[in-house]
């Protein structure tokens, strides 16, 4: 009897999880704990804390996939212990990534012969893909300048001010100047004419965006190609184009097959796309495809000999999971062109449902375009009492995560709310969101204005009367000033 008593006191697996001491004591946050805890307790503690994260399906801030079919979830879990870089050990995984590269290259109309293999690589996401593409351009440009005996220490890239933050990262990490075309009222993407004006002999490439992160709009890559061809002829340079198709690369081929934005345009030398956005795979996969072997300088490629065959690799990191590559292959063969087109059409229709619903409130200007990445970006017509940040805050209470942000220069006076329409955002949810936005607008109308009146300097009006600010007003102006300060420091967090 004594024995069984001892067992029940010491054996934690006997206790109800919430009666065990592990959920009653605080866990160390900065140092690794001295002792082990039971696996059930570890699971429960972490799972409980994670409940406070947002619900990914209601996270309308992100393009990144939040739902896949259970069959694919199974494949992902089965491959979770495979290191992608062990190509000798996992030759099939390597083969699947090569098939994906080829399928995507053909989707982007790479000029490939019948049995010619495409040049490209799977990455962690578009950011890594963009670093690689940028490096290839930089090295090619440097080699050419060296051969001509010209200085090669001041490379630059021309982009729109609407570029995603990863371009700024590339510029800073790899010491390339970013020359940004400013936006303007009513035009929120890179103006091809202005971009070509900024091109000089040190420009390693012009980066166009297919699907601006801010409002989903496609930049006019064809016009850019034509203008740049003309300039190249006049100057004797051969400035190329990279297309950042992170979000639009899996939209345009299905919804706008006649739109020329890809390798059909001769100056487009490389394209990146996020497999984890409209490629429909969970976070952790992107692709970069080059037009041809000549566009990827040989000295950047590492050759791994696997199974007697040459496997060229060109990535920034070494080890990573295999699951995402396998999941991408699953989606490509499971859905096929037909399946992707159906899903993208559905997303587009749901975007239109949401757009019409927002328009019918009469309270919003729509900043996104009907042709583009399926998203709705909108701003308040009347900001005199409340702003978009408050709408965003209030929506959070219904569970919706809808980001609000200001546009880059010279359109920084415009704030937008953005809803990304993904595969798993159904029509019912779109309609529900409109209802909840209407509720939020009603609630806000009933509240005192939070948007500040222009500050009264020193509390003295022009006519000399002294105005004393109420404590609340003072607090608000301090908060507002800090908000502005923080916003100015922050680069856009939307992805
Ligand atoms: C999302 C996005 C990126 C960054 O891509 P990741 O896959 O998140 O690394 C780059 N450019 C554009 C236009 C994007 O939308």
From TrEMBL:
Pfam families with a match to the protein in the record: Pyridoxal_deC
Cellular component, GO, one term: cytosol
Catalytic activity: L-glutamate + H(+) = 4-aminobutanoate + CO2
CC cofactor: pyridoxal 5'-phosphate
Keyword match Acetylation: no
KW Lyase (keyword) present: yes
A single GO BP: L-glutamate catabolic process
EC number assigned by the record: 4.1.1.15
Keywords: Decarboxylase, Lyase, Pyridoxal phosphate
GO molecular-function terms, A-Z: glutamate decarboxylase activity; pyridoxal phosphate binding
Gene3D superfamilies: 3.90.1150.160, 4.10.280.50, Type I PLP-dependent aspartate aminotransferase-like (Major domain) (3.40.640.10)
Entry-annotated residues carrying N6-(pyridoxal phosphate)lysine: 277
Cross-referenced InterPro entries: Glutamate_decarboxylase, PyrdxlP-dep_de-COase, PyrdxlP-dep_Trfase, PyrdxlP-dep_Trfase_major
Family to which the UniProt record says this protein belongs: Belongs to the group II decarboxylase family.
PANTHER family reported for this sequence: GLUTAMATE DECARBOXYLASE (PTHR43321:SF3)
NCBIfam families xrefs: Glu-decarb-GAD
Protein name per Swiss-Prot or TrEMBL: Glutamate decarboxylase
Native organism: Elaeis guineensis var. tenera (Oil palm)
Chain's gene name: LOC105056494
């Amino acid at each position: 009897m004594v024995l069984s008593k001892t067992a029940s006191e010491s054996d934690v697996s006997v206790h109800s999880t919430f009666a065990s001491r592990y959920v009653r004591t605080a866990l160390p946050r900065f140092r690794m704990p001295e002792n082990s805890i039971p696996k059930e307790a570890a699971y429960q503690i972490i799972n409980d804390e994670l409940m406070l994260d947002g619900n990914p399906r209601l996270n309308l801030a992100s393009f990144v996939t939040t739902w896949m079919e259970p069959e694919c979830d199974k494949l992902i879990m089965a491959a979770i212990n495979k290191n992608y870089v062990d190509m000798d050990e996992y030759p099939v995984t390597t083969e699947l990534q090569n098939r994906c590269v080829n399928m995507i290259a053909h989707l982007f109309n790479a000029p490939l012969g019948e049995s010619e293999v495409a040049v490209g690589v799977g990455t962690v996401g578009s950011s890594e893909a963009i670093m690689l593409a940028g490096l290839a351009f930089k090295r090619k440009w440097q080699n050419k300048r060296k051969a001509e005996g010209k200085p090669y220490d001041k490379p630059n890239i021309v982009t729109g001010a609407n570029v995603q933050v990863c371009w700024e990262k590339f510029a800073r990490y790899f010491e390339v100047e970013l020359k940004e075309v400013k936006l303007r009222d009513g035009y929120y993407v890179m103006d091809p004419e202005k971009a070509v004006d900024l091109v000089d002999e040190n420009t390693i490439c012009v980066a166009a965006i297919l699907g601006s992160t801010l409002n989903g709009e496609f930049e006019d890559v064809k016009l850019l190609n034509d203008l740049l061809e003309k300039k190249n002829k006049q100057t004797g340079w051969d400035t190329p184009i990279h297309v950042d198709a992170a979000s639009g690369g899996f939209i345009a081929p299905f919804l706008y097959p006649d739109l020329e934005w890809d390798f059909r345009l001769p100056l487009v030398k490389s394209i990146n796309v996020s497999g984890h956005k409209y490629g429909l795979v969970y976070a952790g996969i992107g692709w970069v495809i080059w037009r041809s072997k000549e566009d990827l300088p040989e000295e950047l490629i590492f050759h791994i000999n696997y199974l007697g065959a040459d496997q060229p690799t060109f990535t920034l990191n070494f080890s990573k999971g295999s699951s995402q590559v396998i999941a991408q292959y699953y989606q490509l063969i499971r859905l096929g062109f037909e399946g992707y087109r159906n899903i993208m059409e559905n997303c587009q229709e749901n975007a239109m449902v949401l757009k019409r619903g927002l328009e019918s409130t009469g309270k919003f200007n729509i900043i996104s375009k009907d042709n583009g990445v399926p998203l709705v970006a909108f701003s308040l017509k009347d900001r005199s009492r409340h702003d978009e940040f408050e709408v965003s805050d209030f929506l959070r209470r219904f569970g919706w995560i809808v980001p609000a942000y200001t546009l880059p220069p010279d359109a920084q006076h415009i704030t937008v709310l953005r809803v990304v329409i993904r595969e798993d955002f159904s029509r019912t949810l779109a309609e529900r969101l409109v209802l909840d936005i209407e509720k939020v607008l009603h609630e806000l109308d009933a509240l005192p204005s939070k948007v500040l009146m222009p500050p009264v300097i020193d509390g003295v009006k022009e006519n000399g009367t002294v105005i004393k600010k109420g404590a609340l007003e003072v607090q608000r102006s301090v908060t507002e000033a800090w908000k502005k300060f923080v916003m100015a420091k922050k680069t856009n967090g939307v992805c």
